[in-house]
Amino acid sequence: MDKIVVHGGRKLTGSVRIGGAKNAALPILVSSLLTDGWCTYHNVPNLRDIESIKQLLIHLGAEVETHDHTIRINAAGLANHEAPYDLVRKMRASILVLCPLVARLKKARVSLPGGCAIGARPINFHLKGLTLLGAEIDLEHGYVNASAEKLLGNEIYFDIPSVTGTENLLMAAVLAEGITILRNAAREPEVVALIDVLNQMGAKIEGAGTSILTVQGVKTLQPVSVSIIPDRIETGTFMVAAALTNGNIQIQGGEPEHVTGIIHKLRQTGADVSIEGKTIYVKGSETIQSIDIKTLPYPGFPTDMQAQFMVLMSVAGGLSIISETIFENRFIHVSELKRLGADITISGNTAMIKGVPSLSGAPVMATDLRASASLILAGLIAKGTTEVNRIYHLDRGYEAIEKKFQKLGADIERIQ
Ligand code: EPZ
User: Considering the entire predicted model, what is its pTM?
Assistant: First the structure.
């Protein structure tokens, strides 16, 4: 198993280029199932999760070609309506094929994704919404069996603005007969990116970026050629790395508009963040101020940045309160950070972080994607050597992150 070894203490300087967003690429690649022609997707990140979704689409009968960061998909040969457990368990976002399969093949048999390290991750909103659009759904032997002779528009309300719930149901509504209204829908940039692609395919969706989406169903959709938006969480991860190491970096290829919450919170810690066009400049400060964070649906502070910010607060000058309101178990990184000397107390979904003068390197274990990124960040500043094990979690969502940190001057390497 690969591991990453970091020797702390280097300031990061120079420039880094952001890749395509994993959480935009996943639903957009799946949307190719909604049409029967060659769709071309540029700026697709080279990640384990992207490999997983490609395998699933091939299993369903689509043709998939990969040319560096461009992927071409043709679902004309879509024939198999079953997404098996051994493919879905590798990546729970595979549930996104459920609605496109019902829309195209009138039926789907998709393994229930099950939970993961950060929470139970139920899909009740996906299933309730699809039922409201006219599908018959039953659960047996760990599978969702869904079928619908015809999908009919309806009003759907999300108790919580679910990101993949909104994306899944949009991909059913676009080919349903009549009007569908999604209320309390997710507003994440990745949802907006999917809506843009669907509308370029001929869909009629209004309200992108707001919590009320109105979809006028159409008969067919056309193939497209599009580019994936930049990854705002990768962007935020490098911004925190610059502040942590009192460095001075330029971030190219990102979308500043998508990280305004992260920019404001980082400025409150004392970092100097400025923007010129699409380039973000982050300069650390000698002392880091302790601030409070509460994760919320977009445009609130992203839960996918919570672990990274916790590392920054662990060496800040006072007491910081971090509340995780999205997932019920997203503090797994805390026990590993405490092994590195952080002073953190958890009570329910709230963590209290008392800043310490420095962390000290040690072997640690990654448990989920963003937690593994936070352990790398901690290693950048910890005294001595930090060894991060089980970094397959990291490779799910970050493309060659150690190479990008090396280029910025970090003393970091991957050991096979
Ligand atoms: C997406 O997960 C992202 N994944 C997650 O990123 C991200 O953390 C999350 O949104 C929140 O922003 C992808 O886009 C592939 P939700 P998703 O449905 O859609 C509850 C990463 O690191 N809920 O918005 O699964 C759920 O339990 C990953 O890249 C239900 O109760 O998240 C959670 O508490 C991790 N029933 C809340 O809603 C449902 O049917 C938000 O979940 C669906 C969700």
Answer: 0.98
Strand partners, 250: 15, 281
Residue of the nearest CA to atom 10 in ligand 1? Answer: 163
What is the domain class of 3-19+230-415 according to CATH?
A: alpha beta
Looking at the CA of residue 26, tell me the nearest atom of ligand 1.
15
Burial code (b: 16+ CB inside 10 Å, e: under 16) for 234-254 equals bbbbbbbbbbbbbbbbbbebb
Atom number, ligand 1, closest to the C-alpha of residue 297: 12
- pLDDT number for residue 416: 87
C-alpha to C-alpha distances, 266 to 19, 137, 199, 234, 261, nearest whole angstrom: 21, 45, 35, 15, 9
Whether 121 is in the pocket of ligand 1, judged by its Cβ within 6 Å, is yes
User: What is the CATH architecture of 22-227?
Assistant: Alpha-beta prism (3.65)
Measure the CA–CA gap between 25 and 91, rounded to whole angstroms. Answer: 14
- Residue 92 Cα to ligand 1 midpoint, Å, equals 10
pLDDT digits (tens, 9 = 90+) for 338-355: 999 999 999 999 999 999
Q: Which of 5, 105, 116, 332 is catalytic?
A: 116
Convert the pLDDT of each residue in 64-101 to its tens digit: 999 999 999 999 999 999 999 999 988 989 999 999 99
Where do the structural domains in the chain lie, given as residue ranges? 3-19+230-415, 22-227
Is the pLDDT score of 118 beyond 90? no
